[in-house]
Write a structure and sequence with these properties.
Structural class: alpha+beta
Mean pLDDT: 91
Number of strands: 13
Largest sheet: 6 strands, mixed
Number of helices: 16
Distance between the termini: 30 Å
Strand content: 15-25%
Radius of gyration: 23 Å
Oligomer: single chain
Length: about 425
């Protein structure tokens, strides 16, 4: 298996692959009510994708954990003159779609529409109502609350979800990143329509918003649409910022007995923000350590050579404030101690010595070769520009990405990991039989 994977990788890397990627011509402006807009013309298909990105993730829940998630889910249950049924019927007739999603940092609402004038006009009117006039009818709200409670129940039956929740609580303590985005039974049951409306009025506002538009539009039409969608949006003043998390003062660990087939192990610590100056050496280094799946050191040492785990990986979770640096593995219960020890040995050796030049060369070639796939369609472009807009990355970020990757060296990776990761208190969670 490993030999076949390496052969395929070598064939890819030995080919004369062009690393040139599509340059995104990102145009920016601000609406009359000072909302930043990011526009990319994509004329090949008569479709437009729009994302309204709010500082309205679960980190803004306050004491009602799960409030941001429930509010985000309920946005399309009634808005302006539209009922939930009206919304569904309109989108069905126009072949449009409205989606919502959220993370610890963001609450996102998206629209996809054909660009023919008749359908686009209807979908834009509907989308504006969702952004500016959502009213949270009681019956759909109760249904969504029941679904969220069911999601919490499912989490309680999943060893992986239990491990992730426990890890966040140990790592972040009282910080807003500590709790699950879904909340818990007690807090979600207590959430009312009134509280959802208050959250919507406080965070789904002009001063918490960036608008991203990708599609077959002219800049003139995109500007007109951005003004239409943001007209009448409330402003509440200066946005509330998420506090800087403080790392635990000492190493923490917790073992939870659970009647599962596998033991889930999470090992990690406080990592970096999305704007960390060592970002590129860290992501290339992480690819070598555990992010590169079958080609990573952790997979090779713990999975291939010893067969102690079913899966193992590492990642930097990117957030507005410092997200975790995390190693995840799943193993047989009787091998959990050996797998954990070996994982720590491999990661500590990497921190001490850094990668080899050959590892860096292969990692850079792989990352650069796959980079064009990040812009293969409207949705992919939209997601990338959303990240750029929310984290205030420079407008030429995508144009300079490949040169930043190419500039990474083994020495820079070693330095970055020793500066950002080495020496920080570690959190370890084990959940299993």
């Amino acid at each position: 298996m490993k030999a076949k994977i390496q052969l395929v990788l070598l064939l890819i890397l030995s080919s004369n692959y062009s690393y040139a990627t599509k340059t995104l011509n990102i145009q920016t402006w601000k609406t009359k009510n000072h909302i930043p807009v990011y526009f990319v013309a994509s004329p090949d298909v008569p479709i437009v994708d729009i994302a309204a990105v709010f500082h309205a993730g679960s980190a803004y829940d306050g004491k009602y954990f799960g409030l941001a998630s429930l509010t985000n889910s309920a946005l399309t249950t009634g808005a302006g003159k539209y009922t939930e049924e009206n919304i569904a019927n309109t989108l069905s007739k126009t072949a449009g779609s409205i989606g919502n999603s959220m993370s610890k940092d963001m609450g996102i609402v998206t629209l996809r529409s054909l660009t023919n004038p008749a359908d686009l006009k209807k979908n834009l009117a509907l989308f504006h109502a969702v952004l500016a006039q959502a009213h949270f009818p009681k019956k759909p709200f109760a249904r969504l609350k029941a679904q969220q409670l069911q999601g919490i129940k499912h989490q309680q039956q999943s060893p992986g979800a239990i491990a992730a929740k426990t890890f966040s609580q140990l790592l972040y303590g009282n910080h807003p990143y500590a709790h699950s985005s879904l909340g818990n039974n007690e807090t979600v049951r207590a959430i009312t329509v009134k509280q959802a409306k208050q959250f919507y009025q406080q965070y789904y506002t002009a001063d918490h918003l960036a608008l991203v538009i990708v599609g077959a539009l002219t800049p003139k039409n995109a500007k007109k649409i951005s003004g239409q969608l943001t007209q009448g949006l409330r402003a509440t003043g200066k946005p509330i910022t998420i506090p800087t998390p403080i790392a635990p003062k000492q190493a923490l660990s917790k073992t939870i007995r659970f009647p599962s087939q596998q033991t889930h192990i999470l090992i990690g610590q406080l990592g970096i923000t999305r704007n960390n100056p060592e970002y590129f050496p860290l992501i290339v280094g992480n690819f070598i350590l555990g992010g590169g799946s079958f080609s990573s050191r952790l997979f090779d040492q713990v999975r291939e050579k010893n067969g102690w785990v079913y899966g193992i990986s590492s990642q930097f979770v990117r957030r507005q404030q410092a997200g975790p640096f995390l190693i995840q593995l799943q193993t047989r219960a009787e091998k959990s101690s050996q797998a954990k020890v070996m994982t720590l040995e491999v990661s500590q050796q990497f921190l001490k010595d850094g990668p080899t030049e050959d590892e860096v060369k292969l990692a850079k070639q792989f990352l650069m070769g796959h980079y064009p796939l990040s812009f293969s369609n409207n949705s992919a472009m939209l997601n990338n520009v959303v990240s750029l807009a929310f984290y205030h990355l420079p407008l030429n970020y995508f144009d300079t990405y490949l040169s930043h990757i190419q500039a990474v060296t083994a020495k820079k990776i070693k330095y970055a990991f020793q500066q950002q990761i080495a020496g920080k208190p570690r959190v370890t969670v084990m959940v299993g039989p």
